[in-house]
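Quick sanity check, Phasin domain-containing protein:
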Amino acid sequence: MSRLVRTETLTGEIALATQGFEIPTELREFADKSVEQARTAFGSFFSGALKTSEQLQSTGVNVQSTVHAAILKGIDHAQSNANATFDFTQKLFRARDLREAFELQSEYVKSQFATLQSQVKEYGALAQKTAH
């Protein structure tokens, strides 16, 4: 019974703590600019990685087509995951209160889990292709 009382007290404390809490506009704007700068930097990195991969293929380096496809898929997945994280971060810093931030976090985790499952299936299909 004491656990139930403690849970109710903790829930009430969280509710009280989140009421009236707002992320300052300046902090949201700063975070937004920082995320955009990081997104640009990662975009340059992924672009360079893709060019390097293409150069390896075109210079005659003996790269198996399946391995090359896996490298390209890995770059694509990394870029997609990074973009999803940047988008989430921007949304998070634009949240008006903790409740909205928690909802965004929940949506992000669900989305990333589904994305991970899909990516694992794609790698599994490549592995099967290599085995045959």
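Posting the structure with no commentary besides this: The chain has one domain: 23-131.
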